[in-house]
Every structure is written in C-alpha cells, then in structure tokens.
Amino acid sequence: MDGMLMLGFAGFLGILKILLMALAAFGLFDAAFRREDAFRAADKQNKVFWLIILAIALAVSYLFSIFSFLPVIGVIASIVYIVDVRPALKQVSGGNGGWRRRGGSSSDGPYGPYNGGR
C-alpha cells in the first residue's frame, strides 16, 4: 500500500514537471516568434533577454527537482512573460504577433484598409 502511494505521488510530480516544462516552452517559442520592435514598443525588456530567461527556465525545470527553488523561479518568470509581457506584445502588434492575418487584403495597413485616399 505504501509503495503504491509513493508511486502515485511520483507520477503526480512527473506530470507537474511536464506541465512546468510546457509552460516555459510555450513562453520560449512565443517569444521567439515575436518581433524585436514589439518588445521595445511595449516598453518591456528586449527579446534576447526574454529568450535567455525562458530558455533557462525550461532547462532548470528539466534538470532540477520540483522541490528545488530554481524551478519555482523559472515558473515565476514564465508566468510573468505569459501574463504581462505577451498581452502587451499582442496589443502593440495588433493582436496577431507580427503574423499576417488570414483573409486580410494586401492593401490593409496597421489601422485598416488603405483605399488610396478615397
């Protein structure tokens, strides 16, 4: 009975570790595909800073036990990026993160369609 409980707890910790890694990986890939000027326009740290912080958070969540303080710091950094930086970047880039929206016209500008001054 004791062994089964420990096995279940170890499984829970394994799932938690995967979730923490997924959180850091999501932030890292999201930051990698954002434009550099969006970080400056949103008045956040630069893109390289966030890429380094999120890459360290991903590596730490992979290498260290959940009971260590380093993965907690990585989770905090990932949450700050996802909750604070990412929405600011989306707002600055028009919600599409620098990617061209599907269905938009080639004459669309940043504030709507360009109609040649008509």
UniProtKB/TrEMBL annotation:
Stretches the record annotates as Disordered: 91-118
Biased composition (Low complexity): 104-118
The organism's place on the tree of life at top rank: Bacteria
InterPro entries named among the record's database cross-references: DUF2516
Keywords: Membrane, Transmembrane, Transmembrane helix
Transmembrane feature ranges: 6-29, 50-83
Pfam short name (any one): DUF2516
Record-given protein name: Membrane protein
Annotated organism of origin: Streptomyces naganishii JCM 4654
